[in-house]
């Protein structure tokens, strides 16, 4: 079965550079969530989108932005990268009619290293 | 706002022993509760979920969890640990469609 696809799997950037992370949800999933997991930390909710509109916002820095496109894939744009942004970034998707109470499906994550 | 607290950042058991990972939740409305497992350098895999049906929930790999409203708990158990169970386990809560909140995680070590 198709899963949530994230690209790239690994990304190395220098401080003050920009990065774009992509997430392709499971077909027919209309909601996408982004999480950040620092080393040894629990996943922290960043932002979510439903039907291409931002639906909820967590601890996302102002330097980050995200959007969901007409094909439901989502991109997380990160600017002025800092060393502390080094983390595993997870995307998850769900179907709003069936998925919310039944858990999300997570991608394998993008490991971002800022040097 | 909802939250979960996982008691014990590290749990070590012997192979074949009972696994008990503790999770307490806080939610202003009836919650949806989840346990996820994460293996090194991998994504989060759903173990089981509570969605206000049966209070005893059975998941994959022999794990189960019991929702106890009076104790606001959702502890994860497995009767007999296997070496392959060694991983990080996250309890999570959601009280609406969006915005799942995770606990800090419990690292399970299984000794031979």
- Secondary structure class of chain B reads mainly beta
The arrangement of helices and strands of chain B along the chain is: EEEEEEEEEEE
**Major β-sheet profile of chain B:** 6 strands, mixed
Element-by-element helix/strand order of chain A = EEEEEEEEEEE
Helix content of chain B: under 10%
Structural class of chain A: mainly beta
**What is the residue-averaged pLDDT of chain A?**
90
According to DSSP, the number of beta strands of chain A is: 11
**What share of residues of chain A is helical?**
under 10%
Question: Which value, in Å, is the CA radius of gyration of chain A?
Answer: 13 Å
Task: Give your account of this protein's structure.
The complex is a heterodimer of chains A (115) and B (112). Chain A has no helices and 11 strands. With 115 residues, chain A is mostly beta strands. Chain B is built from no helices and 11 strands. In chain B, the strands form 2 sheets. In chain B, strands 2, 4, 5, 9, 10 and 11 form a 6-stranded mixed sheet that branches. The mean pLDDT of chain B is 90. The A-B interface holds A 31, 33, 35, 41-45, 48, 50, 55-56, 58, 90, 92, 94, 96, 99-109, 111 and B 32, 34, 36, 41-46, 49, 51-52, 90, 94, 96-105.
């Amino acid at each position: 079965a198709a899963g949530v696809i994230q690209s790239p799997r690994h990304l190395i950037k220098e401080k003050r550079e920009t990065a774009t992370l992509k997430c392709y949800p499971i077909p027919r999933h209309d909601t996408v969530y982004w999480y950040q997991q620092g080393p040894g930390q629990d996943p922290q909710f960043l932002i979510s989108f439903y039907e291409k509109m931002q639906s909820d916002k967590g601890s996302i820095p102002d330097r980050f932005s995200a959007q969901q496109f007409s094909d439901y894939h989502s991109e997380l744009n990160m600017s002025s990268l800092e060393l502390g942004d080094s983390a595993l970034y997870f995307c998850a998707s769900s179907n709003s009619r069936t998925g919310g109470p039944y858990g999300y499906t997570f991608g394998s994550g993008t490991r971002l290293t800022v040097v | 706002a909802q939250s979960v607290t996982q008691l014990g950042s590290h749990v070590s058991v012997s192979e074949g022993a009972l696994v008990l990972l503790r999770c307490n939740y806080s939610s202003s409305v009836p919650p949806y509760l989840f346990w996820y497992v994460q293996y090194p350098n991998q994504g989060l895999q759903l173990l089981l979920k509570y969605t206000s049906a049966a209070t005893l929930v059975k998941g994959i790999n022999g794990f189960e969890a019991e929702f106890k409203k009076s104790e606001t708990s959702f502890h994860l158990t497995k009767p007999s640990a296997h070496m392959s169970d060694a991983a990080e386990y996250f309890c999570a809560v959601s009280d609406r469609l969006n915005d799942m909140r995770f606990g800090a995680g419990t690292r399970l070590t299984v000794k031979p």
